[in-house]
Amino acid sequence: MIVDIFKNTTSGRFHSPGKIALILLCAPIYILIFGEIFMRLFAGVALMPRYVTGGDDGIRRNIPNSAYSQTSQEVDIEIRVNSQGLRADRDFPLQKPEGTCRIAVLGDSFFMGYEVDIENSFSYLLESKLADANQPCEILNFSVSGFGTAEYIVSMESRVLPFDPDLVIFELHQTDLRENVISNLFTLDDGQLVRTGNNYLPAIAVRDKLMQYAIYRWLIEHSQLYSVIREHAGKTVKQLLLVKNTVKNYLSNPSGATGNSTDTAPTQNSPEDLLHALLERGRQLSNENNAEFLLVDIPNGFDPPNYYSVLDIEMKDYDLPANFHLASPMNVFTRPENSKKKYYYQKGHLHLSIEGNRVVADVAAQAILSKSLLAVTGADHSDVERASTED
After folding, report:
1. What is the distance between the alpha carbons of residues 179 and 194, in angstroms, rounded to a whole number?
2. Is residue 66 located within the same domain as residue 115?
3. Cβ atoms of residues 333 and 299 within 8 Å
4. How far is it, in rounded angstroms, from Cα 82 to Cα 63?
5. Structural domain total, the chain
6. Which pTM value belongs to this model?
7. Do 182 and 249 form a contact (C-beta atoms < 8 A)?
8. What pLDDT, in 10s, does the model give residues 149-203?
9. Mean pLDDT of all residues in the chain?
10. CA nearest neighbour of 108 among 342, 351, 361, 328
11. 17, 306, 338, 348: which could join 46 in a potential S-S bond, CB 3.0 to 4.6 Å?
């Protein structure tokens, strides 16, 4: 049958070598065009490009001075990044101006504000909420799509602390458990957090080369077929890294990986232990630099209104609410009267909607003000607290 493809169907003669070469050259183009048309007609997907590159500190960063669109059946927004790699429309001086309050936000695509314009992102809304409560602060958004807690720590040491924040906010999400293992930036040695010395720049060298070409930049923002291929490839690579690093950790400490050692004080090295140690390190770095530390929980929104939080499942035994300053929107998300509200977009990549970002910003502002995590101004904070509790 393969021979028949190159045969003239009426005469039985073979096509000339030139025609065969043309067919071989054009076939992939036809397949790609057909695939793109099929995706758009029958299996439309969201276009969520990520403009990331490598940083000097061995982890990813947002491409400075970039602007790109994200579209789905629910959204059509633009992501803008300043020259410092922050999602912002202006740059910030490294030295904090006298009398200025600063908050540093570290997270993944949820806190980066994917699928919402900057005016509806968590950081922007939190800054507005605090300003309304007479507690004005600059909020610097250091979030990068795909980050886990391990990358927050590296970023905090190299990028955040030089800006002298008064408060550091870590996003807390179920994917942190997986991302911390995949990145292999830190491990636990006899219960102590240790930097492995490794970098984590997945496919960044290839991406940097491709980003030099306008056709590639066009593809990642406009091709649904490419988006599907990229997402599946990324998930496959992450799964392989997860298995590899999990096996590596187990072989280096088989008793600690399961917690079934017969020793009186077993060495733990589970993803949950690693996450807890990284959170402790974040708080320690904050306190050493005269900054407060706050965790903000982002529940999973895969099956609304059946949200679930890492606080209540994987990290339940660590009692994080009792040991850290913490804000969570779960009480708002799970109220029966809110069951019909749209806190996550369901036709994109399941990021927080405008309403979801607003609620998370509300509970974070309430936690900051009620726990006095910033300098007291003597302002009346009751309006912010009332808005959070009466949502």
Report:
1. 17
2. yes
3. yes
4. 9
5. 2
6. 0.86
7. no
8. 999 999 999 999 999 999 999 999 999 999 999 999 999 998 899 999 999 999 9
9. 87
10. 351
11. 348
